[in-house]
Specification:
- The complex is a heterodimer of chains A (about 130) and B (about 240).
- Helices cover about 40% and strands about 20% of the residues of chain A.
- Chain A is of the alpha/beta class.
- In chain A, strands 2-1-3-4-5 form a 5-stranded parallel sheet, with helices on both faces.
- In chain B, helix 2 runs parallel beside helix 3, helix 5 packs antiparallel against helix 6 and helix 5 runs parallel beside helix 7.
- Classes of the chains: A alpha/beta (about 130), B alpha/beta (about 240).
- The structure holds magnesium ion.
């Protein structure tokens, strides 16, 4: 079973997303913010996909994505960014900075759209 | 020399004036504030002026003294102050002394007292309190400083990889502010712990694992080329 690291500070959204992604037959590991997600990645556990929020305490989604994209260990892990109304400003910058292996989903997340985003990342060149 | 800032809580005006005059006659005391009720004392203990010692008169009665000291120890200035119970006379029995200790007093001063007795009991009581303060600060800073170092590494990592940190820098600022907000008495402790932590901090290990982001990876580039060639050959 493929493994997803789900990064979201809001517990309600996190639970919802977890159920959705598990419904796609993925094994989900939860992280409460970017910093915890980064530590989880660095701990050596491998993931096939990261689904992350943008605005979070301690370390935001843009910082997490950046660290992943400049790191030999993680830069090819696909990332789905889920964003709310408040994230608009940061979102456009992320879209410019990290187009590769990255998909965007607006909150509230639609199950079918999330599924399409995830499956389109499985082979970005297909 | 550090001077003791004192509060005197006594509902008898003559006796609190006597204590104040005695305290003011020696260099060991700084600001001495007179208060007639525990409520006034609690207010004074929540202000920003540090208080080293609180004198509580026996005249307030045991039913008032005990809850007062308990409540006072929960205030910002009162948590590290020494509490000295001023008793009626030295001839009072052991039971009274035991009661005073149970009320939460750190020391006892019996009327009538000499200047030397006043200074000595204040010095002893505040010494015990000061040690308690120091060990608490030491524990708090020992937890806080490693967090700051970790966050510092994270910010440095993000910066060195070419991104201007935002949230992580904000968190670093908040952590540093928590050190800054501490009483200036704990700054010496801070320097000791911080220097020690810096000396023993592991070298951040992120440099070797990162590279500057240079657009698509070589693997993707290669696959793109292959795909292009496939597309091209398909067209031919
Ligand atoms: Mg959020």
């Amino acid at each position: 079973m493929k493994k997803v690291l789900l990064v979201e500070d809001d517990s309600v959204t996190r639970t919802l997303l977890k159920r959705m992604i598990e419904g796609f037959e993925y094994d989900v590991t939860e992280a409460l913010n970017g910093k915890i997600a980064w530590e989880t990645l660095c701990s050596g556990e491998s993931f096939d996909l990261v689904v992350t929020d943008i605005m979070m305490p301690d370390m935001d989604g843009r910082e997490l994505l950046h660290l992943m994209r400049v790191d030999d260990r993680f830069y090819e892990i696909p990332v789905v960014i889920v964003s709310g109304e408040l994230d608009k400003n940061m979102l456009s910058r992320i879209a410019e900075e990290y187009p590769e292996y990255t998909r965007f989903q607006e909150k509230p997340v639609n199950k079918a759209a999330l599924y399409n985003a995830i499956s389109s990342l499985e082979d970005p060149l297909s | 020399m550090k001077k003791f800032n004192a509060l005197i809580v006594d509902n008898d005006m003559a006796s609190r004036m006597r204590l104040k005059q005695t305290a003011s006659s020696v260099v060991e005391f700084g600001a001495v504030t007179l208060l007639s009720t525990p409520a006034e004392a609690i207010s004074a203990l929540t202000l920003s002026t540090p208080i080293d010692v609180v004198f509580v008169s026996w005249r307030l009665g045991p039913d008032v003294i005990r809850p007062f000291i308990q409540k006072a120890k929960e205030t910002s200035q009162g948590q590290d102050a020494a509490y000295i119970s001023v008793m009626k006379s030295a001839s009072e029995g052991n039971a009274s002394v035991a009661q005073v200790m149970m009320d939460g007093a750190d020391g006892i001063l019996c009327e009538p007292f000499s200047v030397d007795q006043l200074v000595e009991i204040t010095r002893l009581s505040t010494k015990v309190r000061g040690e308690r303060y120091e060990s608490r600060e030491r524990a708090a800073l020992s937890l806080l400083i490693p967090d700051i170092l970790k966050q510092l590494d994270l910010v440095a990592h993000i910066k060195s990889s070419g991104l201007a940190p935002e949230t992580s820098l904000k968190v670093l600022r908040e952590l540093c502010q928590r050190v800054k907000d501490r009483d200036e008495r704990s700054h010496v402790i801070y320097y000791q712990i911080a220097l020690n932590a810096f000396e023993n901090a592991p070298v951040p290990h992120f440099e070797a694992k990162t590279k500057n982001y240079g657009g698509v990876s070589s693997r993707v580039k290669k696959r793109m080329e292959q795909k292009m060639q496939r597309d091209l050959s398909g067209k031919v």
